[in-house]
Amino acid sequence: MKKLLFSALISSLLLGIVGCGSQGSGSSSNNAAPAPAPEQAPAEQKAEQSLLDKVKAEGKLVIGTEGTYAPFTFHDQSGKLTGFDVEVITEVARRLGVEPVFQETQWDAMFAGLDAKRFDVVANQVGIRPDRQEKYDFSNPYTVSTAVLVTHKDNNTVTGFDSIKGLKAAQTLTSNLTDIAKQNGAEIVGVEGFNQAIDLLVSKRVDITINDGLSLLDFLKQKPDTPIKIVAKHPDGAKNGFLFRKGSTDLVEAVNKALDEMMQDGTFLKISEKWFGADVSK
After folding, report:
1. Distance between CA atoms of 43 and 206, rounded to whole angstroms?
2. Is the pTM above the cut of 0.70?
3. Quick check: is 12 in a domain?
4. pLDDT of 92-126, one tens digit each?
């Protein structure tokens, strides 16, 4: 009898052990609640944060610009940073709900600064070119700059780019504007910059200059009595946009949305006419 009771007790213990093992296996079945995901390390969370999320989280848009390129980005007589590009990107930042923070640097250093993540965006009349588009993202173009043919106000013989062969053209030597003058047969008279070209033209020591259309608009707005006139516009306009690191998709889309809204509600035209007296987006 004692042997039978001892056998029954051993059997019960064995069944209990098997039962516990089956219950443990069931906790990893498809019916069980999934185990919580492991927490991400801070570095992983940061890597997944889009640039737009970062900008909004920090409450500021860091903008690279020259600060020496009037009328687009320069300091006024009081020392305040101002200009067309400064006002446009400031309005974009306002519509994103963040503060614009400008960091000034030289032109060449702006690209390196963007690569090094010192800026979120560059606002400095950056031309949208295929070689740059391979490495960077651009906003939609917000200005179109066209080369213009300029003569003295009294000159009635120059009528277009096909009429400048053999004429003296005041040009900086390495500019793409000089290439246009050469392609049309003009004789190049080297100058240091825009102002010297205009001075030579006013004094009739040269016949023409081919220069940037937006710079001409700004100059004539400042000095409307200067005896010069725009004879023709080159058919190939250069489009300019805000520059971003490659992959800044969310921020680029948000900036484009703000630009679109500014153009539709008249804000962009108001800024454009303030600085150039014309709509420079076309």
Report:
1. 62
2. no
3. no
4. 999 999 999 999 998 778 899 999 999 999 999 88
Residue range of the domain that includes 219: 145-237
What are φ and ψ of residue 120, in 5° steps? -90, -25
State how far the Cα of 137 lies from the Cα of 251, in Å rounded to an integer. Answer: 10
Domain count, the chain: 2
Joined together, the tokens standing for residue 198 give 């205009």
The answer to whether residues 169 and 214 belong to one domain is yes
Residues 87 and 219 in one domain: no
Q: Are 164 and 149 in contact (CB under 8 A)?
A: yes
Q: Which of 203, 162, 205 is nearest to 186 (CA)?
A: 162
Tell me how far apart the alpha carbons of residues 82 and 69 are, in angstroms, rounded to a whole number: 10
The enclosing domain of 178 has a CATH number of 3.40.190.10
Q: What is the mean pLDDT of the chain?
A: 84
Q: Which two tokens stand for residue 45?
A: 């969370």
pLDDT in tens, 49-108: 799 999 999 999 999 998 888 888 999 999 999 999 999 999 999 999 999 999 999 877
Phi, psi of 127 (to 5 degrees): -70, 135
